[in-house]
Amino acid sequence: MTCLNELLSRQCFPADVQHFFLALFTHACDQLTLVCETADAEGLADMDSAYLRQCTEFLRLLVIHHSARFVEMDYPIDGLLALLHRFSFALPYGTELKECLNVWAAFCDFLKVQMSNRSANGLRVNALRFQPILMEVLRLILHKTSFTTNAVELRAILEESDEADFSNTNEDEVPLWEDCLRASIELLARIADFFPNEVLEIVFPTILQCFGAFSSTQEMVVQSVEGPRLDQQSARFLEVLPLLQDLPFLLRLFGSLSELFHSHNADSERIFVERFGMAGEFLQNVLQLTAIGATLGVYTQHPVLIDIQANLFAAIRAFADWLATYNVVVIKSNDSNQLAEFEALIGNTTNVLSQCLAPNLPTMVIRNSAQLFLSLARTVRTRALLDAPFTLGLLQAPEEATAFILSLPDVMARTSFVSALVCTLLVTFQEVPEQFQMWSERYARYSSLIQEVYKPLMNAVPYLTSGGDPPLEAVTTVLDSLAMVGGIFNEFNSSVSNATRKVLLTHIEPLLPYVLQLLQACSDSPKIVAAAVQFLEQYYGCARAQVSQELVEQTVLLGGALFTCERLLPVLQSNNASEHETAERYIRILKFIVESSSRISRAALPLILSICMQNLFPALSEAPIIDVHTSFFELLEAAVVWHQGLLASTDFPVIFDMFVWSLSRPDIDLVRRNLALLENMNLKTSLYSTPAFGPLRFIVIDALLRTLTERSLSVLADEIVAAIFEMTRQHFTGFYEEFLPMFVSQCDGLTDEQQSDLVATAGREQDALSFSRNLLSFVQELNFCRRTNAAAALSQ
């Protein structure tokens, strides 16, 4: 089998090998028949797992590489698929079954390609030919993954997984049970692409049955001293438990099929209308069950309920695009009844999410609800979301909104929820003319809301900047508020117009002096410094060129005082990743300033370069932290690209000395990234052709060649040689006549005769391919001479 698999992995064969493929096809069918007969009679438990893996790999290669040949030669591929079907579902859960599901997925991909392209004999492959077998595969997958029909095997797998303490995982450390579920969902989604109506007619009734089972759990909740408790020992609960266990998988499956309800092709409106009823019923059921779960408050009392809750939120998120399409259809129809129905659905959605933000619920539920609210605000850009009773009530009373936000128990939930409210106020409504966007009203509400949101921060800052030990409550308020407001910048980095971005930033500018005060007064508090620097990074990332000269100057000066070489070096030499990240964020702030290419940026550039040369580089050269190094050299590259006047300044040789240092490091990632930065600089500034680069050319080439000859970076040989060629292409004479003899003379471990021979035999071709081949040969010969001499010295 291993030999056959090696042959099948080759895609190119002579034209006259049809007899070989006929024999191969026949052999595959015979083998599968034998295995399936064994499975029918004895099962596959005693069969060698290695042999089963080879069979599965054989089928995978056959389908991926050679299905087109079988179709063109008119082989009975239906028979092979029937045997594959028998083989697949005779396998137990595990790697082999997952690989068989991948074989089916590969066949579906082949079928999709063949339906869109003409095959060699001019015929189209019709998916209807394979509909019976694919629909049978779908039914068997649903059977095999269902606790209602396959409870014994599935419960045994889950018990075995628990006892194995997660050792039964794939290479990505995903449990094999979960891996099989993912493969099943991906395959069913592919089948649904061919036969959407047929798949939905099978899946939808099943999921409705599970919805009913979950709804019935309301009757199984009893009151106890500790609060509501789900009676898990009742006969009714044990009866519906298999349906509850099936619900997470079906929710994930239906979520993966969400695009079937709002297709983006030419028939999108027809498809939306045809399947509107099913999508609406599904979403209403999901919302109802989510509300039931929030009301009962028993999510954490059974593992399956935790899984259901997470997948209910995921299902709503998956149908956010459908809601966005619904919004567009309603606007285009101009039908008041449809508009009322849509507004009611949006209102119900926000009401359910508000119930899931109740403080008595688990933190994870609250966090998921806030994140889902943000996802809807991003995707369903509609006035209905703004006018929903829950949203409108908060926006009309900013103080109450802030109190509600601060009542959320988790900073991630607060950050997501604040960003969601701001999104409803600042994103552009879909399909609504500019004059009806209500900007003045929405901007006014945004101003009131954001001022209330950051007011606690402004009140808390004096406690931290007045000296002494600040109250813990004030520190917590500052950290949480910076995270909340900073999260807003992430949402509006590039998704809004400049006018809206200006409004966003204008109303947050009063907060900036307080942040700078924190940086100055709390320099010995790593948490405060990290939060303030992160906030400034998010602000600059959103503002870009819309920053004041005063803010830029204060940011650069405070950062220069904060990140001195003496303070930075111990931080980089420590194992504290969060402090490393803070330094990296400050460097990215400097890069944002440099890239604005404005008058303010040009004025700040000398100070930024001074900080790079006197503060950052001396510390970085002693502490090789790759992420901080990467950000630092990206800053230098941005300075050269955005301010090309640097090429004629005295700072340019110093900048390039730092690049030369980096190319001499034994760090593959750093060398590779900086080679890419040099290439980008040359692409955008024609660097290698400038007079400023002339005196530095052979210094850089020397560093690159020594990297090849003296360090174990042979994996980068092609990239290094390509860079040397680009630097040399207009100065080949100087390279061959001046640089190469000098370089060889400075190489240790060579005799005079070897040095002369290396220079004399070096190829002089000037095309890229020959130059690369010759230079690599030169490096290999030089290293060989060194090793030979070293061995001779040892033998003496």
TrEMBL record:
Top-rank taxon, per record: Eukaryota
Keyword Nucleus: yes
GO molecular function, one term: nuclear export signal receptor activity
Keyword tags: Cytoplasm, Nucleus, Protein transport, Transport
First-listed, main subcellular location of the protein, grouped into a coarse class: cytoplasm
GO cellular component entries: cytoplasm; nucleus
The keyword Transport is assigned to this record: yes
GO biological process, one term: protein export from nucleus
InterPro entries the record matches: ARM-type_fold, XPO6
Localization terms from the record: Cytoplasm; Nucleus
Record-stated family: Belongs to the exportin family.
Descriptive protein name: Exportin-1/Importin-beta-like domain-containing protein
Protein species of origin: Capsaspora owczarzaki (strain ATCC 30864)
